[in-house]
Every structure is written in structure tokens, then in C-alpha cells.
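3.2 Worked example (two chains)
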Amino acid sequence: MKADYKNWMPKGMVLGMLGGAIAALILYIVFGISPVLKAGTLKTVLGVVFLILTVFLACVTIWMFLMYRAFSYNDKRQMSLRIISGVASYVTIPDGGKGLDVGCGSGALTIACAQRNPNATMIGIDRWGKEYASFSKTLCENNSKAEGVSNTSFEQGDACKLSFADETFDAVTSNYVYHNIPSSDRQAILLETLRTLKKGGSFAIHDIMSHAKYGDMNAFAEKLKAMGYAEVRLVDTTKGMFMTSFEASWMGLSGSTILVGRK
């Protein structure tokens, strides 16, 4: 049995966009080229609209396909594996301790952290929404079994309102999750995660922390220090650590940063 971590760009999304492009092309042919409509203003307008829509959807489909290939665990680039391993390298949990992975998806980061901390327990939570229908609690559990990892558990949860008490975990982590949550204050989501971290615990949260999505993260780092956090750093992962600046740009990952430190 081999672990199947799926793809951060779900195949269903790629195929759905491809289907939309094909449908738009068919509509362009029917209403813009074929004799179904007589020549005139309506035919011209519909032809232009459906042609533009076809080109747009085709371009998005190509971009999504390239993203799918880049994030494939079987691709030579192995970007996803590099990112998961890199984030997990910051997570240290004492023997007998507990760690939390927020937005665990297919369980990749939860399992990687559990492997690095075999005498601790990792809990992965996710809402497993319909947009990522291929990800599930069962998939996470099966991947743990496939990797021979027994110090993990998975449950459904909400990153915006965690069901854990303050200072429950010795480490908290997350990878490319919070930017997907509709919110005008993602720093508040970070604080909700950090709320569950014990004094002395470590954190490693990787996401697209651009100003547009998160606001001023340098100011947020200073805020955490003022709150008494022992260590806070922002690590840019787009300059060769996980990807090049060019890759980050065309993939829409500019601003990818790890918020790392200790409470």
C-alpha cells in the first residue's frame, strides 16, 4: 500500500475548467460560426462573447494543468514534497507531547511531523470541503497506515474557531491553508491557531502572506514579540528555498512565507 497525498490542484478542478472551455468552444461554433443564427448583430455579439470566454477558459485550464504538474508528488520537481519536508523540519515536539496541523488535507504535513517526532502525537484537522472532495479523514488515516505511522489522529475542525482549549499543544503548524479562507483579517486566524500553543511551544505556519492577503506581517511579528513570544521570524520561501521567484510569480504563490518561532 502506497500513500496517496493527491494534488493541491485537484484533478476535478482541472477537468471542470477543461469542460467549461470545451462547452464555450461549442457555443462559439454553434452561435458564432454555424448557420443556426442569421448573420447580424446578435450573431456577431454572441460569437465575440463565446470566443473571448473560450480563450479565457483555455488559458486558465493550461495554467491549472501546469500547477497540477508542478504539485504532483510523482513529478521530478517534487515541489510539494520539498515544501512539506521543509515546513516539518521546523516542528519539534517533546516526547509525550502533542502537535496540531491545521488544514491537514490529505495528511501529508501531519504525517511528516509525526515521522520527525515519533514519541509525540500529531493531530490533523480539516473541514474537507467539496472543493477538495478528494481529500478526506479516511484518506488521511489510510496514508498514515501506508507510511507506517501510528502517532497521528484526524478530525473535522474549523480553523477560524478551533475546538481546543488555550495552551493545548506543544507545536502548531499549517501549510497553504488560511489564504483559502474568506476573511478580512487573516492575522486573527493566526492568533486563533497560536492561542492553542503552550508556553514554550513552537510554530511553523506556511502560507501566501502577501500584504493583500494578510496585511503588514512585519508589524504582526512585532506584535507577537510584544505579547511575549520568545522567537518570531518570517522566512521567505520564494527565493530558492521551496521555489524560485519566477515559479512563485506564475503560480500565484508570491509572498509565500513561513511564520516560525516559539511562544
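3.2.1 Second chain
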Amino acid sequence: MALADFVAPRTEGLIDYIGAFAVTTGHGTQELAERFERDNDQYNSIMAKALADRLAEAFAEYLHKRVRMEWGYGKEEHLTHEELIAEKYRGIRPAPGYPACPDHTEKPILFDLLKVHEATGIVLTESYAMFPAASVCGLYFAHKEAHYFAVSAIGKDQVESYAVRKRHDGCRGRALARTGVGI
């Protein structure tokens, strides 16, 4: 299974979309957490970071709802809070580094496409972490059968093939070594 399975092939002549996003609620969170730490208040330091992380996920989820409405396939949604939490809606929003697309080296493509730094102030570090920490980026898929899955164990031949394709596509092939996906 691959995320590409949830994109209509050109040969079918269908109009299809995927969306891309990057959000943050982390500006100022590190400074707030450090202030709490200076006051020996570890609890509120941890809570400030956790709250910022949850707000970033909520923001991405809110935008996903807007996408479903604006693209039209979510206009008839009348989901309860429980159904929303259980993701009973159509579509998914996978993010680099999570089970369906574990390769963090895909983030620069999203950052370039969306001009993330200019629009949000989010910085991508050399190891592909996002700063501020309470930041999320990913894709929106509308396919009726789209669902989350985990990329399972892969063989050496698959890693080698992926490394060649990453280099061929000009997408920082040597980044595989930095992310632990080595040969």
C-alpha cells in the first residue's frame, strides 16, 4: 500500500486533488516553557508544550474539515464529536514522519511548495525537525477509500531502490543516511 493508491491515475481522466498544509501554534511556546522552568515549575512547562502541540493538531484538523467542505465531499457531514475523534469522515491527512509516510526527507518538498517559512515562520532543521516544535505539515487526500496504514518492514532491495529514486528525483538522496534509513 502507498499514498499514491489514493490518487486517481491520469489514465482514468478523473479530476482529483490533494492538498498540502503546514501549521504552527508554537511561536512563543519555548520561551514560555523556559520561563516556567526558571521558576522550577516543570508541570506548567510540560503543559505549555503539550497544549501547543494539541492546538497545532487541532488547527490541522480544522483545516482538513474546511478542505472537505470546500472540495464538496464533506458538505453532508453531520458527525458527532466522537465520530470526528474516531476520524469517521472521508479522507486522510498523513504527515511526513508518521506511519503512512515515515520519511522526513519529504518535508522540504512541502516547504518549497507552500513557501512555509515565508508564510508561517516555521523553520526546517538539518535533521528535518520543525521549529517551533508545535508545528505540523502534511497532505490532504480526498479519495473515498483513503485510510491510514503503516509502512511495514522493508527489505534491503527496497531501501536501495528508494535511495536511487530519491537521488534521481533530486530530493536529497543522501538524507536517507541522516534519517536512519540507511543501506
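3.3 Remarks
The longest helix spans residues 42-70.
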